[in-house]
Amino acid sequence: MDGQPIRVIVADDHVRAREGIRSILQMDSEFEIVAEGTNGREAVELTGVWMPDLLLMDINMPEMNGLEATKRIKEKYPYVKIIIVTVSDDVADLFEAVKKGAQGYLLKNISPHSWIEYLKAVAGDEAPMSREFAVRLLREFSVKEHKASPKNGLTVREQDILELVAKGLSNREIADRLELSEHTVKNHLKNIMCKLHMENRVQLTRYVYEQEMGWH
After folding, report:
1. Which structural domain, as residue segments, surrounds residue 79?
2. Count of H-run helices and E-run strands, the chain
């Protein structure tokens, strides 16, 4: 993670569960918990504010469950990696979570050291998915479920950042202009490039001029 801490949001409606997760992550200085939520709606809101690297999400929560929150977050912020944390190893729940965009899952009863290793692997894009799970998951997907996002799917904040990129501003300059942290801007840019299927700032700038979006 290029020397930066792995920034984490924890969403669970049980105080003890959040305390347990916090105690595990505090075992390793590479993790930094930036916020905690008690339901899916808070998880969505906090993600927009903090733009974490990882979000640890419980499934059964009030107001909005973890599966719906996962779907909404991945639609808005595809770069954010979501790990479902659950006491259940019900395959149907896990399939549903991954179909909605989660990168993986952790069972609450496995050892803390396994948690640390797994979360670091996910954060570094190295987490393996078992062959059996991958095959079963592929069978669950169907062509009709693959829908293109409307227009470019960017949020208002992402549109603002994209326009400033097109004007030649650096991440630091964008952060100062929008009163954000440089890390937040960097993660927003990863979201933007993921949504627009682009790889660098040059492509983003050309896209803005070709589209003549005129947001302001």
Report:
1. 6-144
2. 10, 5
Q: Which of 6, 178, 4, 191 is nearest to 80 (CA)?
A: 191
What is 2-68 written as a DSSP string? TTS-EEEEEE-S-HHHHHHHHHHHTTSTTEEEEEEESSHHHHHHHHHHH--SEEEE-SS-SSS-HHH
Q: In terms of domains, do 173 and 131 share one?
A: no
Give the rounded distance of the alpha carbon of 42 from its chain centre. Answer: 14
204 and 114 co-located in one domain: no
Q: How many domains does the structure of the chain reveal?
A: 2
**Residue 189's domain is classified under what CATH number?**
1.10.10.10
Tokens 């954010």 belong to residue: 80
Q: Residue 141 forms beta bridges with which residues?
A: none
List of residues 6+ apart from 39 with CB closer than 8 A: 11, 13, 61, 62, 63, 64
Q: What is the pLDDT of residues 38-49, one digit of tens each?
A: 999 999 999 999
Mark whether 39 and 19 lie in a shared domain.
Answer: yes
Tens digits of residue pLDDT in 113-168: 888 988 988 888 766 555 555 555 555 543 333 333 435 688 888 989 998 988 88
Contact call for residues 60 and 33 (beta carbons, < 8 A): no
* Whole-model pTM over 0.90: no
Report CA-CA distances (Å) from 8 to 136, 205, 209, 215: 29, 30, 35, 32
Are 100 and 202 contained in the same domain? no
CA distance 171 to 166: 12
